[in-house]
User: What shape does this take?
Amino acid sequence: MKSKNTVALTSAIQYDYKGTSAEAIQNHYDDGNEFYRLWLDKTLAYTCAMWEENEGYDALETAQIRKLDFHINQARAKGAKRVLDIGCGWGSLLRRLVEVHGVEQAVGLTLSKAQTEWVKSLENPRISVHLQNWAEHYPEKPYDALLAIGVLEHAAKLEISQAEKVEAYRHFFSHCHQLLNPGGWMSLQTGAIENMRREDFSKFIATEIFQETDYPRLADIVKGSERIFEIVALRNDGKDYARTCKAWLSNLKANRKAAIKLVGEELVCRYEKYLSFCSICYHLGTTNLLRITFRRIDNPRK
Assistant: This one.
């Protein structure tokens, strides 16, 4: 039986989802857990790390944990009763929330079957995971904090119009607003296109790596969130992503033979091209890595 709050959530959000499908997500993330374990660090975090100056690639795990703690702190999630992680991956953030930061219940969403099975295998009673799109997530009650790392890239497809993209981002933020308790905070991390033509970057990514995916612009995020969330803090850490991609590429090359044995040389070559291409784009600043802290506007104006 649904609570009154669940009914309110359901009735408040009615729209046509314009983001990445489950099939497209699974086409990428379900390439195999063992494949990703070869070139990610022990946390299995598959998003940009947070580096300190002069750290080498061998500090990847430390940099990833630093990133997790940063977002947890920005979302004011420490000691919370219930926290939602949209796009939870293999559960590194979920584990950090309950094992280090005292969260009572951490809930993760992913469209990857392989990631869902991995998180369930942790068998932690304080962690739950749903094979579910964020747009279809209607909990029994709202969350105290929300984290969305590497999610906004999947909120709008490449081929839709600019107006539809902004509408898609607005739907994302509107739904996140409904998912949060009054006064709740959200920490978001996303790649963003700024100083290059969208088609020069996104077409390669959307056709060869992340199907049905597009990177937002900062202006799109501002338009999508205005009057719904207050932007409290903003960081552009593109150089962090350049270094992260280089670290991943170094690991992949070091384990190339094992990777080819698992997934074939064609796929390994595609990932090498992707990681090399992205490291250059982030280093040059043609793409950015945005870390944004949002505070829920409890009485949003239309």
The two ends are 32 Å apart (CA to CA).
